[in-house]
Amino acid sequence: MSARVALLAVVLLAGTVSSSFAQLGIGRPTGRTMVDAIIVKIDNQIVLSSDLEAVYAQQLAQAEGKPLPPDLRCKILQSIVLNKLMLAKAETDSVVVEDSQVRNELDRRMAYFVQQIGSEKKLEEYYNKPIKQLKDDLRPQIKEQLVQQKMQESIAGKVTVTPREVRQYFNRAPKDSLPYYSTEVEVGQIVKLAQINPKAKQDAITKLNDIRGRIQAGEDFATLAKQFSEDPGSAVEGGYLGFFKRKELVPQYEAAALKLEPGQMSPVVESQFGFHLIQLIERKGDSYSTRHILLKAATGNSDVNEAALQLAKLRTRILADSTTFAKAAKDQSDDKNTGSNGGLIPNRQDGSSYLPLDKIDPAIFFTIDTMKVGHITPPLPYRTDDGKDAMRIIWLKSNTPPHQANLKDDYQKIAQAALNEKKNKALDEWFLKNRGSVYIEVDPRYADCKLLDAVN
């Protein structure tokens, strides 16, 4: 994989809390003022020296003491310039991403960060910012990433490689430079969420209606939000969510909020996050601000047991060859991210299904440690990235011992590398064709990087 595609993947699929936020310009407070400067201008887009250094620092950390290429900073800057050129062209070509897509990716990313660090409270303490502020900081950068992704797909998305091209790619590589892979596994899962029972729903609704009555009787909405709301990001601020544009919040919430006049309060509203009381504060053009009180209906043992029972029946069918694990995952898993991939858990670094054993989630590691290839676990308790109670069954599809890369065992990886090389050529051609259509200014300190040349 070339430097450019690898670095683009780092930006889109950053794997740890600190490195991910660093990639997006959200560093942990240090008490020091960092000197920053614009080093490249591309129409209305700019590249800061901090943008370059954030990616370089992450590459340095991932190298784990191994020497880095002397021209790595230039390679990183070339990758960033390509991304900024795509953003500039997207603006002139009116390429946009839906607000709902940005919101979903933001929620997914934030849920992952929370899972990695342990809780929303710990994440807020780590960065000394409320969850809402972290989301506000992340939102514009994630939108840029998705636009870049869409542009890259339009440029190189239809590129494919043939088996002959894969073999040629592999045979061109010097044999002494072929990668050595540690033990890797392919792991699948089928997830069933614990469905909330009607009584738990009604209890949440009843409690919110009681709170609503207290507000109507004169108590302060913000004070009760601090006391009762189960949205920690906004509860500390009296339920205040700030300004959002249309389609940036879930449809049920937005529809209820926009029916209100400033100061008015909604009846109980149900969304994918739970149950809300909403108060409209202000409208400004296409934007509006609200506060809310959120309650989540708790799941009980009976709800989790029902999910386990469904998975046990599904496991029996798979073991009896009535269906395959991949088909069952696609049709019935409540985790759509893995379900669409036949249940296989993706490698967050490269998007493949191969997970290095030394970097796998500990919960999965200790589960598969004694499993044989092809075995499927009984239903196991599971907590989703966004904190929902669930059960899952786990399948060990493959377990590859340490080895040097070869076409037999690593065809998919080699094919992906060959595809990336071909996509790089398509991106280079696009870059050379479009670099003259925008204004580009480069700081003289980086003249030796030859940023206006194609990346080989």
UniProtKB/TrEMBL annotation:
Q: Keywords assigned by UniProt?
A: Isomerase, Rotamase, Signal
Name one molecular function that GO assigns to this entry: isomerase activity
Query: Which segments cross the bilayer?
Result: none
Location of region: Disordered: 329-350
- Give the Pfam families listed for this entry: Rotamase, SurA_N_3
Tell me where the signal peptide lies.
1-22
Q: What are the PpiC domain coordinates in residue numbering?
A: 182-282, 285-395
Query: Which superkingdom is the protein from?
Result: Bacteria
Q: Which InterPro entries does the entry mention?
A: OMP_Chaperone_SurA, PPIase_dom_sf, PPIase_PpiC, PPIase_PpiC_CS, Trigger_fact/SurA_dom_sf
Alphabetized PANTHER family for the sequence:
CHAPERONE SURA (PTHR47637)
Official protein name in the record: Peptidylprolyl isomerase
Species for this entry: Hymenobacter algoricola
Give the organism's phylogenetic lineage: Bacteria, Pseudomonadati, Bacteroidota, Cytophagia, Cytophagales
